[in-house]
Amino acid sequence: MRPLTEHDIRTSFINCSKGEAKRAELPRDLADLPWDDLDFLGWRDPGAPERAYLVAGGDGPLVGVALRVTSGAARAFTSRSMCSLCLTTHTSGGVALMTARRTGEPGRQGNTVGQYMCADLACPLYLRGKRQAAGAGVVEESLTLEEKLARTHANVRAFLDKVAA
Ligand SMILES: [Zn+2]
Fold first, then answer.
1. Distance 122 CA to ligand 1 centre (A)
2. Distance 40 CA to ligand 1 centre (A)
3. Are 155 and 111 spatial neighbours (Cβ–Cβ below 8 Å)?
4. pLDDT tens per residue, the chain (165 residues)?
5. pTM of the model as a whole
């Protein structure tokens, strides 16, 4: 994706207040992120581990969502769990349940959408082999990288559509 600026990111959020968007802790050294390897930008708030953010776009308008990280959810699985976006399997703790408040009236009523995701939201890096999942890894598949990226893109879009629906 194209390199994003702080302004791009703060104005992309669809499911939090302007104040929350303004206060969100952004990744440090934005200019130095490996943008060529990122299909979306996801990060955990370094100062508040229960907060995470995901910003996607590129071919269309940017869409950012604020996420709540539910810790301990991975305990429901015996030993491994899978990210629902990129399908990378991790050992316990590498995947977390991320919930996003829905936009509009459903969100005001406390409606959320939750999905299991790589706990560090680095799906694009796992898919490209730039980051390794501890003890598990990407399931061997006959898909090409392009096909996996397209599938992940579709999964991210579907998630964002549910948030904004
Ligand atoms: Zn993932």
1. 6
2. 11
3. no
4. 999 999 999 999 999 999 999 999 999 999 999 999 999 999 999 889 899 999 998 667 899 999 999 865 445 556 678 999 999 998 878 999 999 999 999 999 999 999 999 999 999 999 999 998 876 555 677 899 999 999 999 999 999 999 998
5. 0.91
Q: How far is the CA of 150 from the centre of ligand 1 (A)?
A: 13
Measured in angstroms, how far is the CA atom of residue 118 from the centroid of ligand 1?
4
What is the CB neighbour count within 10 angstroms for residue 47?
7
Between the alpha carbon of residue 79 and those of residues 71, 76, 93, 94, 122, the distances in Å are 15, 9, 9, 11, 20
Measured in angstroms, how far is the CA atom of residue 8 from the centroid of ligand 1? 23
DSSP letters for 52-84:
EEEEE-SSS--EEEEEEEETTGGGGSSSEEE-T
Q: Which amino acid is at 107?
A: G
Q: How far is the CA of 156 from the centre of ligand 1 (A)?
A: 10
CA of 117 to the centre of ligand 1 (A): 5
Question: Taking a C-beta distance cutoff of 8 angstroms, is the pair 130, 59 a contact?
Answer: no
